[in-house]
Amino acid sequence: MTLRPALRIAAVAALAVLGLIGLVVWESWQRAAGTEVVLSIATVDPRGLLSGDYVAISLQEPVAVGRACPPGIDTDPAAVTGKEPEQWIALAPAGDHAAAVGAAGERAGALRFAPLVVRGRATCAAPTPATADSGGAPGTLALDLGVDRFYADQAEVQRINETSTICQSGSCPVAAIVSIGRDGKARLKGLRINGQRVVLSSF
Question: Are 174 and 195 in contact (CB under 8 A)?
């Protein structure tokens, strides 16, 4: 009688482990099969917690003076609560990276702007127009794609830490390497630091 409950517990534990392994394999396959893009990072915040060493990142793209925020993207960042429904965000090449060029509530609507779309949230602080007394100030386009954390070993975190102050000052040699799956989900693959790839070590 005492063996049966133990067997049940062992069976449940084995199923849980198999489910976890299956999830990791599935996510790894989706990450490898997706379309790879490079996205700009405005801030990098290296830290070490009890959960391991990781780097918190913020996906941001400057909006030059004289340009408008992409259509369909919220232009009042102060009013954003983080609970807004996800949109479909269109991404298009912009030099050595990809940038958001529009957004819509439906996938078909976003595809009007570019052939690559991703699910997430975006906000845009419009640039300040130039005046007779001022040259204006650039705006900021921020993306929330659920890829805000990068796990790495301690040596890599320290290496990234050396570049973080540069990112804070405006010119960032770090960018995010992201895979966009057919399901529209963004999956972080790694970082590009001064032109070199740092591959995701765990997820």
Answer: no
